[in-house]
Amino acid sequence: MLLDYHDSFNAGPITKATRLVIYDSFNNPIALFFDNLDNTITCYTAGDADFASVLKQYGITPPIIKKLTIGG
Fold this sequence. Notes:
Elements: E1 2-4, E2 14-16, E3 19-23, E4 29-35, E5 41-45, H1 51-57
Antiparallel strand pairs: 1-2, 3-4, 4-5
């Protein structure tokens, strides 16, 4: 797959990639795209139930998210 990405609409390079991880501004992965051997591209997002296990399968360690309860 080819990536065409920009920062504040400055001209960016087109880069060849086999895997792309998109992170939010808190460094949490929110999407994973990967190029398969048959030239199809698969996408998993944070909304998918198995997203964390897919990240681990591809060697990406998701951050540890803790739920905080405030109050009594």
